[in-house]
Amino acid sequence: MYVVVFLSSVILLLYFILRHKLRYWERRGVPCIRQNFLSSELDWLIKDKSRFQYFKDIYDELAPHKYGGYSVMPLKIMIRDPEYIKYVLTKEYDSFSSREKLFFTKTDPLTHFIFNLEGKEWKDTRAKLTPGFSSGKLKHMFELISECASEMDQTINITAEKTIDVTKFLRLYVMNVIFTCTYGLKVNKMENGCEIFLKMAGLIRGGSNFSKKLANFFFILPSAIRHYVTSSAYGTYSRDFFKKIVLDCIRHREENHILRNDFLQIFMTLMNADDETKWTIDKTLAHGILYIMAGFSTTTSAISFLLYEMAKHPHMQEKLLQEIDQAFQESDGNLDYDTVQKPVYLNKIISETMRKYCIIGSFSRRCTTTCALPDGFVIEKGTAVVVSTSGLHHDPQYYPNPLKFDPERFNEENKNARHPYVYMPFGAGPRYCIGERFSILMIKAATMTVLKKFSVSILPENDFEFIFMPNKLTTEVEKINLQFKPRENMKKNLLII
Ligand code: HEM
After folding, report:
1. Does ligand 1 have an atom closer than 6 angstroms to the CB of 286?
2. pLDDT at position 109, please?
3. Of the residues 112, 293, 392, 449, which has the maximum number of CB atoms within 10 A of its CB?
4. Which residue minimizes the CA distance to atom 27 of ligand 1?
C-alpha cells in the first residue's frame, strides 16, 4: 500500500515538474507553439519534413509576433523581426557568440571544428582560417575551380537534345572542386575515385537511413546530454578513410617540398607555426571534413536549382546566355577570375535562387550571458535563438508572391528598399559563412561553363514546385531532370558520343 502511494506521489510530482517545464514560454508571457515532451524539433524527424519547411512552418505559426518560443527542452526561441535579428547577430553579439553545435561530442576532436567553437577559441580559429578565403587566395584558387569546370564540361558532351539529371554531374564537380582546393586531389582522376568519394561524403553522417536519423536525433538532443555522448557522428570507415588521405597528402608534400595554393597548405603552415594555440593534425582533419560537409550538398543544390529555374524561364535564360557569351568574348573564351566577375544579371539570378531555395533553412545563436531584447524581454543564458531563413525568404511582406522566381527582386532599387536582415542565405554577423565567396565562385564557374555550350529546358512532367527531401540538414531534392540542347554556336565544336 505504502509503495503504491509512494510511486503515485513520485509520478504525480514528475508530472507537475514536467508540466511546469513545458509551460516555460507561457509562464514568461511569450507567444509560443504548443510543446512536445522532449523537443518540438522531434517533429522534424517524426513528420519527415525538410528543415526548409519545418522552420518556415514555425515562422508562419508565430506570425505576427516579433519572436516566440517553440521548444523548452532545450529552450529555443525564434526571432522573426529583422531589427531584433540584427540586434542579436551584431549589436549584442557578445551575448550571442555561440551557436547550436553540429554532431559535437566532447570526446571526439574531429567535431571540434570552427562551426562548433566558442569564445576565444572561435575567434582565434576564425582569424587563422579567414586569410584562406581572401580575394587574393580565391583568385589563385579560381584556377583550380576553372580546371574542374572544364573537366565537368567534357563529361557532358552531347550532340542532340537529351535529358540529364543535373545533380549527378554537379555533385561530382563540386566534390572535385572541394577536394582539389582542400587537399590537392582530383577525385575524378582516381580509379573508382568519384564513386568512392561521393559515397564517403554521404557516409560522414552515417550510411543507412537509420544511422542518418540517429545522427539527426543527436543533433536535436539538449546540449547537456549531447556533449557527453561518447560515440562519434562519423562512421569509423569514413573517418579512417579521410584520415589516411590527409596524412598521405601531408607526407607527400613534405617529402617532395610541394607548395600549393590550397586549404591544406594553409593548415600545414598553421601546424608549423610557432604559436601558443597550436594547430594540431586533428584540427586539420576536422576542418577538412567541415569544408566538405559545409560546401558539398549546399553548393550542389544551389547550382542545380539555378539551372532548373533557367530551364523554367527561357526569357531569363536568353538574357543570361547573351551576358555569358559577351563575358567569354571579352576574355578570348577563357574562364578566369575576371570573366566570372562580368555577368551582372548572373548575380541577381544567384541571389534569387538563394532566396527562393534557401539552402540552409535556419541558423542559430546560443545565449552565453543573460541578455535583454530591445523591448526588455530577458533571454536566459543557454537559450537558443533561432532565425528562420526559409520563413523570412518566403514572407510575402518582404517578397510578394514568394514562390515566383524574379531576379529583379535583387536590382539595386529593390535591394535598398528592403531590410538587409530579411535576406541571409549565408547567415549574418561575425559568424556568417566563411565559404560564401568560395561557393559563389563555384556556382558561377559551373553555370557559365554549362550555359556556354548548352541551353536548358524542362519537360512538362518535370515542371513543378519541389517538395524538399526530409532528414537532411540542407534543402535538397533527389534529382533534377533537364533537357540539354547544344547551342547553335557550339554544335560544331562538340564531340559525338
Ligand atoms: C551555397 C553554399 C553555402 C551556403 C548556403 C552556406 C550557408 C551557411 C550558413 C547559413 C552558415 C551559418 C551562418 C551563421 O550562423 O550566421 C554557414 C556557416 C559556415 N559555413 Fe557555409 N554555406 C555554404 C558554403 C560553404 C562552403 C563552400 C564552406 C567552406 C569551404 C563553408 C563553410 C562554413 C563555415 C566554416 C561556417 C561556420 C562559420 C563560423 O562559425 O565562423 N560554407 N554557412
Report:
1. no
2. 81
3. 392
4. 295
For residue 397 the three cell numbers come to: 511582406
Q: What is the per-residue pLDDT for 318?
A: 97
Is residue 432 in contact with ligand 1, taking CB distance under 6 Å?
Answer: yes
Domain containing residue 111: CATH number? 1.10.630.10
56 lies in a domain? yes
352-393 tens-digit pLDDT: 999 999 999 999 999 999 999 999 999 999 999 999 999 999
Which protein residue has the closest C-alpha to ligand 1 atom 9? Answer: 426
Backbone phi, psi, residue 190, to 5°: -90, 150
Q: 438 CB under 6 A from ligand 1? A: yes
Q: How far is the CA of 294 from the centre of ligand 1 (A)?
A: 6
Residue 14 C-alpha to ligand 1 middle, in angstroms? 41
Given the C-alpha cell 532548373, which residue does it identify?
308
- Max alpha carbon distance in the chain (Å)? 93
CA distance 260 to 434: 21
Residue 87 per-residue DSSP state:
I
In a domain, 192, yes or no: yes
How many Cβ atoms from other residues are within 10 Å of residue 226's Cβ? 19
Pick the closest to residue 58 from 356, 366, 390 (CA basis). Answer: 390
Domain that holds residue 360: 2-491
Q: Is the pTM of this model over 0.85?
A: yes
497: in domain = no
Dist. CA 98 → ligand 1 center (Å): 15
Q: Residue 496: inside a domain, yes or no?
A: no
C-alpha grid cell for residue 1? 500500500
Residue, of 36 and 441, whose pLDDT is higher:
441
Q: Compute the distance from residue 221 Cα to the ligand 1 centre, in Å.
A: 22
DSSP 381: T
C-beta 421 within 6 A of ligand 1 = no
Three-state SS for 475?
A: coil
Given a cut of 50, whether residue 478 has pLDDT beyond it is: yes
Please indicate if the annotation marks 433 as binding a ligand. Answer: yes
Nearest C-alpha neighbor of 350 from the set 448, 435, 458, 420? 448
Atom of ligand 1 nearest to the CA of 427: 16
In total, how many domains does the chain have? Answer: 1
Mean pLDDT, residues 278-290: 90
Q: Which helix (H) or strand (E) holds 412?
A: helix 412-417
Q: Which of 100-104, 307-311, 314-318, 399-403 has the lowest mean pLDDT?
A: 100-104
